[in-house]
Specification:
This protein is an alpha/beta fold. It is 33% helix and 12% strand.
Amino acid sequence: LDDIAAIRPLHSAPVSVDESLVTLQDAARIARDGLAEVFGIKLNRVGGLTKAARMRDVALAHGIDMFVMATGGSVLADTEALHLAATIPDINCHAVWACQDMLTVDIADGRGPRNKAGHLHLPEEPGLGVEPNEDQLGHPVAVYQ
């Protein structure tokens, strides 16, 4: 963030912070110091849905727009990102980046939100709204109890 702070006063172009946004402290500093107009929130990178939602709250409180991303994920990760994006006013959410089309195995057999003409729609089922085909997942590598 120090590098972004150093170049910020040298230009008038909007700044989107992506890889430098990792912790809630990063979000607070970016907002406090006016380092960016856009947060790129990658759920996997920031520690999951709860931490991403806290970053969303910081962004909204400071008039910062957002992209919501589930990098390299399946339809499950994309659905999680879509749920977060649904809590952001349209004017503040530039896009949801879905990665499911990059995978060769569909672990949900076509269920869940799918890219149709550039749009994803939230499922109406309870919870996440999509369940994996457990046969596609195979045997667990590890089990934690």
